[in-house]
Amino acid sequence: MFQALQLTDKNTIALTDLDESALPEGDVTVAVSYSTINYKDALAVTGSAPIAKSYPMVPGIDFSGVVTASDNADFAVGDHVVLNGWGVGEKHWGGFAQTARVKGKWLIKLPAGLSDADAMRIGTAGYTAMLCCNVLRDQGVKPESGPIILSGATGGVGSIAVNILAKRGYEVHALSGKADQNDYLTGLGAKAVIDRAEYAEKARPLGQQIWAGAVDVAGSHTLANIIANTQYGGVVTACGLAQGMDLPSSVAPFILRGVSLVGVDSVYCPVAKRQAAWADLANEMDISQLSDIAHTIGLADVEDAAKALMAGTVTGRYLVKLS
User: Fold this and answer.
1) Residue 228 — left, alpha, or beta (φ > 0 → left; ψ -120 to 50 → alpha)?
2) Which of 195, 227, 260, 280 is 20 to 30 Å apart from 69, CA to CA?
3) Taking the model in full, what pTM does it have?
4) In the structure, what pLDDT confidence band is assigned to residue 146 with cuts at 50, 70 and 90?
5) How far apart are CA 108 and CA 80, in angstroms?
6) pLDDT over 90 (residue 154)
7) What is the mean pLDDT of residues 167-174?
8) Confidence bin at 292 (pLDDT 50/70/90)
9) Are 60 and 110 spatial neighbours (Cβ–Cβ below 8 Å)?
10) Which domains does the chain possess?
11) Concatenated DSSP letters for 78-117?
C-alpha cells in the first residue's frame, strides 16, 4: 500500500491509500522520494484548469526517486532517477504519490552530485530554466552581448534562471511585482530588479534596444514589451503564460531588428537535451542556495500550497517529501 493525492474529478481531491495493483501500466516502478508543485500542478489541484485528461488522476508533473522494479534494460533496481513532463500528472499518474509506475523512456538517471531532494528542489522549473539558458548560450548570446531580462523572477523558473545566468557571467535584470523580495533576487545574482508593472501594459511596436536576451514565463503584454525592447539580433525565450496566452506584439522587432523568439518546451523535450540540461544543472547549480529557493512540505500540505501558488503569494518553490 502507498499514499497518493488523487483527483476523482475536476473539483475533488483527497489523500488516499492505494494498492500497487492500482498503478497504471509501465515498465519501471519507482519509490518516489520527492516531487514539487509547478504552476500546472497548482491548476490541476485547485481545479482552475482541465489539466487532468482522465479520472482518477494523481497529479504531479515531476518526481525523483529510486527504481524498485524494472523490465527496462536501461534501468536497474537501485538506480536514482528523475522524471519531468511526458504527460505525467495529466494523462498518466504522476508524482504526488509514494509509488509511481512509468515508461522507462520517460526517465533519466540522476547525474552524480545531485540527491533526490536536490533534483526536486530544481524540478521541472529548474530544468526548464536551464533549457532556456542553454538556448541563449547556443544562439550566440554571450555575457558581453548585453543585459538579460527575466520575468516572473521570484518563481521557480525565474529564481533558478537568475542564478544560472549570473553564474555564467551575464548581467541579469529581474522583473518582479514583489518589492519585498529585492534582496532575495540580488542574493541569487540579479544586478537590478524592475517593477513588473512597467512591462504589464500594451507594448509599442518598437522600444529602446536594451536586452540582449530574455527568459519569459509570462506571455501576453509582458512578452510583447520584452520583444519590443530587445536589441538587434537578440534572443527571447518563452516558456510560460502566467499573464496570458495571447501575444499582442508586432512583426517590427523581427523584421527590423532580427530578434529571435524561441519557444521552450519541457514536456516532450528530446532525451538528449534533457540529459544535457540536467548535467549542466549538476555542474553549475550552487546546491547550498537551493535550500533558500525551496520550502519542504508533506503530501497533506499540497492542496493549501497549490492555492497559495495560484494566489501569487509564493516565493521560490515547494519541495514535496514523499518518503
Assistant:
1) alpha
2) 280
3) 0.89
4) very high
5) 9
6) no
7) 97
8) low
9) no
10) 2-110+288-321 (3.90.180.10), 125-263 (3.40.50.720)
11) T-EEEEE-TTBTTTB--SSBSEEEE-GGGEEEPPTT--HH
* pLDDT for the residue numbered 293: 65
Mean pLDDT, residues 269-283 = 94
C-alpha cell at 55: 479520472
pLDDT band at 314 (very low <50, low <70, confident <90, very high): confident
CA distance 225 to 138: 24
Grid cell for residue 150: 527575466
Buried b (16+ CB within 10 A) or exposed e, 268-300: ebeeeebeebbbbbbeebeeebbebbbbebebe
One-letter amino acid of 219: G
